[in-house]
Amino acid sequence: MRIRKAVFPVAGLGTRFLPATKASAKEMLPVVDKPLIQYAVQEAISAGAQELIFITGRSKNSIMDHFDKAYELEAELQGRGKEKLLAAVQDIVPPGVTCIFIRQAEALGLGHAVLCAWPAVGDEDFYVILADDLIDGRLQPALAQMHRVYQQYGTSVLAVQRVPKDEVSSYGIVDTQPVGPGLSEIRRMVEKPKPEDAPSNLAVVGRYILTPRIFKLLERTQRGAGGEIQLTDAISAMLQEQTVLAYEFEGTRYDCGSKLGYLRANVEYGLKHPELADEFRAYLEALTADWKPGAKKARA
């Protein structure tokens, strides 16, 4: 049982990062030296994806360009003997992996974006990855962890994370029945409930393994919250027909759809970067020392 196709809904406007995203896709915001969408693509490939399906919008040409071959740049790097940089550019899309770009004509929500992928996905189980959710898997990428669960149970799997009670109103929250350590069967989903109405603090985050049945359900899903077609509504309908599992992945999630989450990701990925870690850590230690009461000011 292998999943070959991964869907990346990347048509959102990224208004929380304006003006940085006025002319550039929010998914192209870099974490240290790679854009968010590249981290998502690498995670999908690590879980066996060979066809990458991007659901794009009018302002997303930079994503297409990033995954296209850059002949002039490669020739320049090769001519200057910059082999390490050349390898980094050429490895963005490994051999045997193809990219498909589909335009979402109207911004009608995540559910509609997934529905737009139907012609490319066909009658196959598939991944959905939201690049805003950058997940640093501990020993294995989060999607590869989910694929192990899928291989065992052969059904849809959603990534979930426990969130503080006062934050449940920002997520789709699931009511579950335990199946095993970190794994449970979803009984119902509630979209952005008030804390007092939430059935748990297990929040669905941006990783999904879905069966193609979701497309038929999305096709007849009415517009919900915000006047958009909600993926959560279609998954709720699927619960009446199929088992859907919730998996608590091992790793750290950074909500890069928020400025604070994005800054945290840059700091923590910078502290692990093979070229920057030691110097960056020394800088942060000196910076934080300057903030301590009574500490001397740093020299200009």
From TrEMBL:
It comes from the Bacteria. InterPro entries: GalU_uridylyltTrfase_bac/arc, NTP_transferase_dom, Nucleotide-diphossugar_trans. Keywords: Nucleotidyltransferase, Transferase. Residues 10-268 form the Nucleotidyl transferase domain. Pfam families: NTP_transferase. It catalyses: alpha-D-glucose 1-phosphate + UTP + H(+) = UDP-alpha-D-glucose + diphosphate. GO terms for molecular function: UTP:glucose-1-phosphate uridylyltransferase activity. Its EC number is 2.7.7.9. It is an enzyme of class 2 (transferase). Belongs to the UDPGP type 2 family. May play a role in stationary phase survival. This is UTP--glucose-1-phosphate uridylyltransferase. It comes from Sinimarinibacterium thermocellulolyticum. The lineage of its organism: Bacteria, Pseudomonadati, Pseudomonadota, Gammaproteobacteria, Nevskiales.
